[in-house]
Amino acid sequence: MVKKSAAKSNGIVIKAKGTSCRILDIGQDGIKTEFSNKGPITGRYRGTHWDTVEAQMNANGTSSWRVRFIQMTDKGDMLVGTGEGTGEAPNSRGIAKLKGSGTVMTMSPRLAELNGRGWTCDVDQNVAADTAVVRVTFQ
């Protein structure tokens, strides 16, 4: 028996690319930034994802973050959501592993079962290229 991937059965994959970055504060504890990202969605539905991430990058390389996002499917359905998570310091190839969770909301009749549901994500963020692969599973 072949097991379906989370992206095909109950989740999505987002391939995000940074569109802007703001440095909000620099201090002894680290750096506060705000990033905006955009990218295609595949999996349970297809479409486009936009987000704004506020991140605290700590002096030891770890991070904490909060996200707000909008998604528009290729069928015209809109989803919005919020979440937060943490990240590890980037490895020798510049890849940081992040994890997070949050909730999603939609008024779409087609995606009504997702309204108010939780989600979790695992992220591979390429710090140098300003790209990320986000694997989202709906709870």
Walk me through this protein's architecture.
By secondary structure, this protein is mostly beta strands. It has one domain (6-138): Porin, CATH 2.40.160. 3% of the residues lie in helices and 67% in strands. The chain is elongated, with a radius of gyration of 15 Å. Mean pLDDT is 94; it is low at 1-8.
Short note summarizing the structure:
With 139 residues, this protein is mainly β. It is built from 1 helix and 8 strands.
Strand order of the largest sheet: 1-2-3-4-5-6-7-8
Q: Whole-number average pLDDT?
A: 94
Major sheet: 8 strands, antiparallel, barrel
How far apart, in Å, are the first and last alpha carbons?
Answer: 23 Å
**Strand content bin:** over 45%
Which CATH top level class fits? Mainly Beta
SSE string, helix = H, strand = E?
A: HEEEEEEEE
The CATH architecture can be named as Beta Barrel
Q: What would the principal axes of the Cα set say about the shape?
A: elongated
Total count of domains: 1
As an assembly, this protein is: single chain
CATH fold node name: Porin
How many separate helices?
A: 1
